[in-house]
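Message: I would love a firmer grasp of how sequence relates to backbone shape in proteins. Thank you; the sequence and its tokens follow:
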Amino acid sequence: MSQNLKRDNQFKRRGPIDGISSRGSVRFNQGGSNSLGASSGPRPQGSHARQQSNVLNDFRRSDGFHPNKQQQILPTPQAHSPRPQAQETFVIDRKQAPQHKRGLFGKKKYSGQIKTKKKRSKKKKVLLTFLVLFIIATLIGGFLVFKGYITLRKVLPGGGGAAALQQNVDPSKLNGEGDGRVNILLLGRGGEGHDGPDLTDTIILVSIDPLAKEAALVSIPRDLYVPVGNMGSMKINSVYATGKTSSNTGRISVKDDPRLNEAGFKLLEDTIQETLGLPIHYRFMVDFAGFEQAVNNVGGVNFYAPQSVTETMRINGQNYKLDVKEGQQQMDGFEALAYARSRHTSPRGDFDRAERQRALITALKDKILSPSTFSNPQKISNLLGTFGDHVQTNFAVQDLQRLYQLSQEIPSDKISSIGLADPPNNFLTTSSIGGTSIVIPAAGQSDFAPLQSYLRNVLKDSYLKNENANIMVLNGTTKAGLASTKGDELKSFGYNITQVANAPTKNYPKTVIVDMRAGQKKYTLSYLEKRFGVTVVSQIPDPAISPGEADFVIILGNDQVSAN
């Protein structure tokens, strides 16, 4: 008790604390009323009467020191109390007394200090609300990340490979001409619930030039009649299904066993590589339901329809009349699927349908890669879910990441649309066999050479195109016309052949390739070594040969005679 009294006396001698006047701005007294005129009721009885009676007065005085004879009367513990008891805390409504921003005794926490319980309570509620929202957001985000990881593992198992996806590619990593691009086979099939669920009625080759930041879409007609290994010839849309069924010897009972799918893909990819003369690096197959859902998940597609289409069809188990006018369109998934499948009323049938499909693919690419999709976690989650259930591919995660970076750098006006039956490049035409409509090369049913040369040059290897080396071809044998034949072959692969002639002598047993630029055009050098199976030299073997502006001189030997 003596310590408390000593503390109180020290406080009386002290000056104003934090602007609280010593002139009775707050006073504890013995009465039953306060200076605001509000009755405080009967005076409390008992040992704590002083502690429970309080009066607040004169809030109108200014802050600072105001001398007054009247002293503050502080509550004092009673003599019989062994220790000071915890005292009540008085709460002042700050709306009624806005002048008092501090406690009655400044920053010291004596009894009678004002505590802003209401404000702290509000703060706690706000903090609690934010905490709950943060936890919910974290859980949702974690779910999406987990879902995305699981789905990506399912959708992107890997297996494909394009060296050109990497930057600063080592020439030794490129297998041959064409590997300087990234070629992706887009396939659309009916899927479960459709007639011929494994018929790939949509086949589009997407070819990307990673150096020039350009791309091209090439439609392959579903009725293209092609030779398939030792199985004879068939429509190309049935090759995948044939590969699946022919590999099933009865030991595999699961309908969609990965081994059967892989067999179907391999047969189809090998067939297309032989037919078009281009390497296939990746594949991406989606069924009709997946395409429809993907379009809906990104909010529909916007594109320009090059021609009007009106057709009544059976789609998704219902009759539907498609009526699209030429011009700008916005379509949901169902209408886009109908538009992509329509072909019976178009003037050129499957060729017109292929043109519409290329327009849809470009529009869907733009929508998927748009900020409105990639900034929306729900859309990304829905797309992953759609792809997980309806897509088969051999992309790995890192492949798709690099491909996404490339696609961001390729604007839509740098994506060309190539039709193989569009004048003047009408390399395909319609025919029939056994009463069935088919598509064949215009040069002849089995003559794909003009088509291959066209595609290799319009889809020129990125590194050949970038280096654009001048190449001289000389005939070092006695076989007439060998230089012209080899020169045309090299041109078909995209080489820049500037001169074809006979060598001064005709006795070269093996082909010689001379690099006149000391390895500066390393990709062309690597491709030529792989094609001819020789090592490039730096010196011309015959001083009678004048290379002129040539970057490479090829002197054909007798090994090329036997190769033909």
